[in-house]
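Folded chain entry
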Amino acid sequence: MNLFCVGLSHHTARVETLEQFAGNAETCLLLRNAGCTEALFLSTCNRVEVYGAAATPLSTEDLARCLTRGTGQPSSDVPSAFYRYEADACVHHLFRVASGVDSMVIGETEILGQVKKAYKSAQSSGSAGPFLHRLFQRAFRVAKQVRTHTAITRGAISVGSVAVDLAYKIFGDLCGRKVLVLGAGETSERTARALVSRGVSDLRVSNRSVDRARDLAALVGGSAVPFEDWTNQCGEVDILITSTSSDAPLLYAENLAPILRSRTDRPLFVIDIAVPRDVHPDVNQLEGVFLYDIDSLQSVAEQSLVLRRRQIASAEAIIAEHVSDFWQRFFGGRASEDGCAITGQSSLTQPPLRVSES
């Protein structure tokens, strides 16, 4: 059985490439049809990966096609942005991802929840079997140990918090600034909390689900804005932060330009942390509008890496120990140094169990 991970992330691709491979509800089915005995799909704002087990190796190109959004074909040079890990190298990579060591913001904890959510989805659909069950259960244990026994998460921030840091660098004091958060998911909640901690008192939340918008607004002391009215808010707010799950841009220069006529010498800062992007790049061409996306945030995030660099070595030591133990326990041999194909008799025969939340 061949255990592998194929994907692309902020390390290898810009946002315009990532958004071509956000996948869809049928991604795991496509992977199974392509030859994966087991498959798990992980998609975040800066990462798209598939973890799989197959009787024979599958080409990276075939897997990339399964991850393509919609029916369009990706750019011809995109496969070079994909990385591939086989066997114990796949195990090592997943442990680093779940522990926050491979994140754009080193030590952030949001990724662990996203990995658990991806596992639950694969488990519910039946696409995750005994191989991936054991692998991901161990990954959750490793992440917990790294968080408990190192200080890598101390002062750690999420992508949403990085966006708020960028807003702070632009405006200085955020007190008195009007902010609209578009989206009411987990990332939006973290972003809204970070905004409040920076002194924002006029915080507006808009979402397709009005109930979710109201819940988040109530949680952070803000106000809910009907989704059909959010674009008009761009005439009033100083900062727009978007993080929805829309498959296509929600804001274009064409529909924003008329709204901006009511603004007098007041710049509008737009921070788009969604993948695929919520805001079309042509918005940046409008006078008085400054647009930032995931690629822009990466340079801000890298500045915080220095504070946690010493903790990475400790985290890597924990991860390496678990990789070796996992490989010996379930594949009857020593972990290789080059990530070759799986060899030896597997003992992964137990049916999947429910994921531990600890």
Notes: Strands lie at 2-9, 38-44, 47-54, 83-86, 178-182, 202-206, 223-225, 239-242, 268-272, 289-292. The chain has two domains: 2-154+311-354, 159-304.
